[in-house]
Amino acid sequence: MGITKKVTVLAVGLGLVTLSACGSSDGDDGGGGSGGGSRTVTLVSHNSWAVSKDVVAAFEKQSGYRLKVLEDGDAGQAVNKAVLTKDNPQGDVFFGVDNTLLSRALDNGLFQPYEAKDSDLILEEYRADQDKHRVTPVDSGDICVNYDKAWFAEHDVNPPKSFDDLIKPEYKDLLVVENASTSSPGLGFLLGTAAKYGDEGWQDYWKKLKANGVKVVDGWEQAYNEEFSGSAGGKKAKADRPLVVSYASSPPAEVIYADPKPDTAPTGVAEGTCFRQVEYAGLLSNARNPEGGKALLDFLISKPFQEDMPLNMFVYPVREGAQVPEEFAAFGPQAKDPETMDPAKIADSRDQWVKSWTSLVLK
Amino acid sequence: MLLSLRAATVRFSGRAVLDAVDLGVAEHEIVCVLGPSGSGKSTLLRAVAGLQPLDSGRILLDGHDQAGVPAHRRGVGLMFQDHQLFPQRDVGGNVAFGLRMRGASRIRQAERVRELLDLVGLPGASGRAVAALSGGEQQRVALARALAPSPRLLMLDEPLGQLDRSLRERLVVELRELFGRLGTTVLAVTHDQGEAFALADRVVVMRDGRIAQSGTPLEVWQRPADAFVARFLGFENVVEATVGDGVAVTPWGKVPVPDGAPRGTRTLLVRPAGVRLVPVEEGLRCTVAARTFRGTHVAVRLQPEDAPRLEAACALRAAPEVGDEVGVEFDEAEIAVLE
Amino acid sequence: MAVPVAFFAVFFAYPVTAIVARGLKTDGTWQLGRIGDVLAQSDVRQVLWFTTWQALVSTALTLLIALPGAYVLARFDFPGKQVLRAVVTVPFVLPTVVVGTAFMALAGRGGLLDELWGLRLDTTVWAILLAHVFFNYAVVVRTVGGLWAQLDPRQEEAARMLGASRFAAWRTVTLPALAPAVAAAALMVFLFTFTSFGVVQILGGPTFSTLEVEIYRQTSEIFDLSTAAVLTMIQFVAVGSILALHAWTVRRRETALRLVDAAMTARRPRGAGQWALLGGVLATVAVLLLLPLAVLVERSFGADGLGYYRALTEDDGGVFLVAPIEAVGNSLQYALAATVIAVVIGGLAAVALTRRDAGRLVRGFDALLMLPLGVSAVTVGFGFLIALDEPPLDLRASWILVPLAQALVGVPFVVRTMLPVLRAVDVRLREAAAVLGASPWRAWREVDLPMVRRALLIAAGFAFAVSLGEFGATVFIARPENPTLPVAVARLLGRPGDLNYGQAMALSTILMIVCAVALLVLERLRTDRTGEF
Predict the structure, then answer these.
(1) Do B87 and C154 touch (CB under 8 A)?
(2) What is the pLDDT of residues C336-369, one digit of tens each?
(3) pTM flag (> 0.80)
(4) What is the Cα–Cα distance from B339 to B78, expressed in whole angstroms?
(5) How many Cα atoms are found within 13 Å in the side-chain-facing hemisphere of B123?
(6) ipTM value of the model?
(7) How far off is chain B from C447, nearest CA to CA, in Å?
């Protein structure tokens, strides 16, 4: 490479000084975790990160750290970027790597070990990397087929319950799914079928699904807001697919974000079509403020945060005894027996499956 | 008549820019429309060209009403005031343009381009870029371009407006000679009376969208239709007068008028040549305010005591100095009673 | 010249090289064999083929549909013209997620075409092509119309007097004069469509894939940086050759044009033909551009009217740390900063490029400036991340990165809009100023600047609009406490529930209005002062 950092620094140093001198009004230092001092702790996450203000305030007050959050694109991008910058990370803690990408983070040495306080209170089923403690589970969610209650009532059809139901003739041309190579729920659904039917059987299942008129779109936004007849957007767009791959937490969201709030959710979840996603956080290797990072990790599995999460990120807590909001319990209970898959297995097969899936379903 | 305008009217936001104009141009005739800027003369050309639709009235070419005939089908040529040569094309490309539009063969185009460039005195200029031409050369190219398709009527908008005086005087003679030789019918507009008189068979003076006067250069020069025309032609000695029998009462005193002049309150024109200088005591007493050398004569501006200034034309030798006191007499032959 | 070069070296060339190197270099040696491997894959070749042809067809279609619009906006005077000019630019700044929604209302299920003729274009290639027209209409109207308005209409009249029909006169006189602007517009449209991402993804469905989509997929999802690097290089070469071709054709046609005040050339349409043309253009705009936008507005109103808008002003304490409405302020600030950067850098570059003593090297820079349009936002974004990570250039978390990234996209607009006009300025005017005692800088300020002010404002408007709607780079730089409008919209759309969807539509409507108002103000600015020329 012809240009060295030294040269570029010389070339624009002056210009940048002028540029930044006339703007930085937010009072931050401009440089990620660098030189932020030990009183600031930086969380790097994806753009679904959300938390209530008072919960953050309580953390800051109690720990003495100021929390700074950087959002680095969608879940996939955020992980990839964290991997790329692992030698000189942007922050201290990364949150948002899920079980489908966990191996990428671990194999690349993204995290350093830390066993968070209260980690013994994390429900057994979510724990991972127990020997090294490089990651701490923070939340979980189920990717499931959602159905439009009104449509099924109107057409006098029972909503599907399982993967097997979806290939039955009465559900022909009703399901919309996301592209497994570009969408996280799309991938989750594919992994669910792989978990259910095994390495050999899933392709066969998808052939039948395709024959039964499954529609594939690129992202969750299109699937849910444009194609699914049960959503607010879908109703306005005269959508005609009453089945969509979404989350188990989508029905409660339809209640909470409605005005006026209905007594019951307009959508439901097909219990037997769920795949469990778990999101982890970890202390970044080379973190500039490891002590602050540790405090932050403790906070992520603390009761106040765990109970705040559901309504902000529409996920379920992983901490024993954490209460979920009433709407969640009523309209979006966690799947009783979701499909799961070992992160190592996912790491081994994921790319090959996506490739086969693409040529099988899209071509 | 090759071209006739019948009550041709154009309005711009309610204001009549052409106001019921009647005008005819015969074949092979060169007609020059003369008028100050804003008199509507350019609009007249644009209306004939089909670039400006009429609000009322008619335009006929060869007796055919041109309403609804688009500009490119009228078979007339227009040379624009600032030439509007196409900067993307070279000289030859500009001249050949009209022929190309008519589907002439390449050979025919090349032939005609050569012929016309020779005609306008720019032989071999075909490959030159228009941006590299001098003003006079651009003029010639524009002319060649307009002539190339042999339009039945050629219209010129201030054809020599941007050129220097000597070039203008030379070109105007060349043009007249050229049009005469080619038998071109020409309708030109200009604000320069010298140009109009030198070029035209017939001069049409326009004012505020109307035709103020029409006639041969001599007729117009000798007998301007009204005070406006007289002043526009450069005459300054124009006053209100009460005309009686062989004599008119003016601010300059009594002035002789030709026999048979209409009586009553009239506008009187005294040509500079009709103002004769005599010894102080023999005529109207004036002070010489200014003198301007005009080549063939000297124009002298005279200030009478209680009357408007007078302009006189004197022989070179007889011209008085500024500040001199002179007397003035009027020559009946150079006096015209207008209207 | 030094400033734009440094800017591009640091904020473009360096990060992109860094990320490509990361993909293709292992243990310090370049793995160039990867290029062959990737090219040998049939689906890569297929993607390349689809990318190219859809871009060509989209460009042709856009020119076909938008040139009459450019003419009408340049030459006709009619009430609401300025509003119209602002409105056609709105699609350009809308986030693709929103545009997808809007465009479905035209061509999708239950859309206008479906209602009228039972015609559904979603997931067909036609939806992509039409959406490209929808997006790029303004590019043609603004770049071509800007110059068109200043062409002396008498040139066409001169041709008409020589026997050219209206169309022949346009083709032989106006079109050649417009050629640099048309070429510039076509080039930009081609670049945009060649590197199209959101439109292809949303409207084309997963079966259609452009290089850009593939690069995104390889970088963001599959994390195969070496394949991504090869694809980036392919796209780079493709875009580079298009730019070279364009530079070559434009240079051959450069001529000094006679420009007049735009206000003098526009007049009310007259005659049935012209009214029909105006009507046709307005109808096209209405169906193709306004209808999808109207759908957005319609969906932003809830059962109780303005409920979604009211919700925007409430701080929900969660999804956003501030009320979503504050995104408007953030967006405006970023866009303003980006516009300033883009105008300064682009302006300097354009001036340097028009200097007569500009050598080959400098002229080559012209094409170079366009390259950011041809490189995936994901590539640049990832490049920023690994390249600009050490003080004093550790900008990864700085707010300035957002306007910088946006300015990268804005600069080509500024350069492209200003170059044709700057080049058309008669050099004698500068000489006249020099003789009257003006230094070169002074002469530029006194002569060129007033003449190009209009172009400059158009350029600034573009840069502003582009950064207002920029999403790709902003999404991973914006911080949760100060999201921009597109980021906020995307975030709302990413969550289920009536209120979220409604607020997303309401916020999109606000984005549209902010953009339209900003552009309108710019239009006003232009006519308020007299003596433009």
Answers:
(1) no
(2) 999 999 999 888 888 888 776 656 666 667 677 7
(3) no
(4) 35
(5) 3
(6) 0.75
(7) 20
